[in-house]
Amino acid sequence: MPFKRYVEIGRIALVNYGKDYGKLVVIVDVIDQNRALVDAPDMVRGQINFKRLTLTDIKIDIKRVPNKKTLVAALEAADVKNKWESSSWGRKLIVQKKRASLNDFDRFKIMLAKIKKAGVVRQELAKLKKETTA
Amino acid sequence: MSYKYHQFQVVGRGLPTETDEQPKIYRMKLWATNEVRAKSKFWYYLRKLKKVKKSNGQMLAINEIFEKNPTTIKNYGIWLRYQSRTGYHNMYKEYRDTTLNGGIEQMYTEMASRHRVRHHCIQVIKTATIPAKLCKRESTKQFHNSKIKFPLVFKKVRPPTRKLKTTYKASRPNLFV
Question: Signal sequence span per UniProt (chain A) (predicted)?
Fold first, then answer.
């Protein structure tokens, strides 16, 4: 019931609307009730509305408004990229991206793989059924 | 971030006459949506201060002033004079923003919403960047906390682009964070 993800300096958030959609940004300072100053290694530090952010579980240890070098160093130290990509949320996003970028031949390969997997599952199921009836 | 109000520096003077060969040059910093409006506002204010009009004056320069540090948060104090339904009043308002233009835009929208004062009834007297110690309003001072921490209480799931917006939804939204 209590809140687990807070808006605080160092919180990593995902941008879910707008030009920077899909980026992971660090909340570097809070402007007012609705806006935060965010920063990422590949963008100019700017303001963004909280409505455009979804907070993640990851938080790094930085002071208020660090300069770009300190920020990048802190991100490396906390190993944010790997933590994100190994989290279930991060993995799902990677899979979504992969699926969206498939070409027809890849979709054909996936179809074959799915059929093969279903065949193996059905064989095992048949075996189990035989054991229970026997 | 595109701002509605731009800050301009407008410089003008009255036309030189036989009695006054070198009239005094006046410079104003004001906010307007575009250059044309800025020049008009300049003459409006100058008329109220000096005996000069656009017809017997000349514009010398108009430059847009851009924010020096748009990536740092500042506390802006704005002194303004506005016309209400019953008379003129002075006001001092504080805003936290990254740029002065953003702060001015906040001021105009807040005056419109809180006091029903339209843009043309507001005159900006003075603006200043206030250091955190000298801020007067609680609503700006509450953000002067280096360990600020608060949860986002309502989460509204939005489609990531306006194109994917639908009028009807199958189920009621779950607003829990």
Answer: none
